[in-house]
Amino acid sequence: MKGLSPAMPMVSVVVPVYNRLELTRAFLQSFQMVVYPNFEIIIVDDGSTDGTPDMVVREFPRVRLIRERGGLWWAKATNVGIHDALLRDARYILTINDDVIVDPGFLSALTTYAEAHPRTLVGSMIYQRSQPSVLWYAGGTFSWLRGDLTHRTSADPRPPAWLTGMGTLIPVAAFEDVGYYDEDHFPQYSADADFSLRAKKCGWSLAIAPGTAIWNRTEESAQLVLRKRVTLRTFFLPLVSLKSDAQLRLRVALYRRHWPLLLQPIAFTVYYARFFAKQTVRLLRLR
Q1: pTM above the 0.90 mark?
Q2: Tens digits of per-residue pLDDT, 92-103?
Q3: Are 277 and 246 in contact (CB under 8 A)?
Q4: Largest alpha-carbon pair distance within the chain?
Q5: Cα(90)–Cα(108) distance, integer angstroms
């Protein structure tokens, strides 16, 4: 963590973590190279049992650690960190995950863009860790009929339709207008997209800052692991699991809140028709 600079706005970096000690360590090590001079890191540990909190205290003493007892998931853990940051005069909140590695100049690029574009939530360009030159996310788009939130995979100057919470800089005033992440309907997935879409409805703009780069372990997300091996016993599990973006409650809330009324039943039907087709293929490949 760099020293404070009164000329640069304060950024609070909020990072929810749970039982990923080595990933958390690698993330914090990469952040030590960040050149932006005025930030703090807030780790919200959601009851880790693998020694993550002790590692943070021992190896990164300047990081602010909040210990929780578990069961928060991404949205509520992030909200805990945001509430804590707002007590100490942050001008921006950066939401980010601990399974990424960051470019040293990305936070400067984000903040410079945000300062030049008031009332804007600013996202980062996200690349694949396994293929560092491959762009995985350059802003969110919609597939209205299929019911999907999709990614742009090439640089595009047009505003994105929604932003992921992985490397997004948010002015603190946005939380006064929009509220916080919806931890009830979207505890683990889609809370970031929902928040940015609600921000747009409140008059905030969305953008991806050029010159930013973070690298994500895209091949190891919980939902991909959940669907990797499908058996008769686990065939329907993604419909109820908080580790899945196919959870029924999540999808109903997402479509009711953000899809055009006439497209909501179409999106729901097409999405789950495709979901069951894919699950069936995965199941048959194991038999």
Answers
A1: yes
A2: 999 999 999 999
A3: no
A4: 63
A5: 15
Listed by start position, the domains of the chain span 11-217, 222-286
Q: Is the pLDDT of residue 5 over 50?
A: no
E-strand ranges in the chain read 11-17, 39-46, 64-68, 92-95, 100-102, 120-123, 126-128, 135-137, 140-143, 148-151, 168-171, 205-208, 214-216
pLDDT at site 3: 44
By the 8 A CB rule, do 247 and 186 touch?
no
Question: What architecture is the 11-217 domain classified under in CATH?
Answer: Alpha-Beta Complex (3.90)
B/e letters for 150-177, b = 16+ CB within 10 Å, e = fewer, are ebbeeeeeeebbbbbbbbbbbbbebbee
Residue 228's pLDDT is what?
65
What are the backbone angles phi and psi of residue 136, rounded to the nearest 5°?
-100, -30
Helix (H, G, I), strand (E, B) or coil at 217: coil
Residue 20: both structure tokens together = 């990923």
